[in-house]
Amino acid sequence: MNKYELALVISAKIEDDARTAVVEKAKEYITRAGGVVTEVEEWGKKRLSYEIQKMTEGYYYFIQFDAVSTVPAVVEQDVRIMDNVLRFLCVRKDEA
Questions:
Q1: What's the distance, CA 37 to chain centroid?
Q2: Using CA atoms, how far apart are residues 11 and 34, in angstroms rounded to an integer?
């Protein structure tokens, strides 16, 4: 199993409970694809470096998970069509 990190930038215009639901949905996608979520980091509201969909701020979340090499592609496919996710990035973490 490899270690991965999914970074999400979520719209700042939605309520707290809706934002939590988006993160839970992303975690559900990971577990359904066969991954194991190990940690969720919330960085809070940050200013975006450039405007995305007429928004200048977003909430940043980092979800660490363990999975086989095919899982990130499946998770990205699911996250790509989620509402309120402005940007996402899934990367493999180095074994350090």
A1: 11
A2: 27
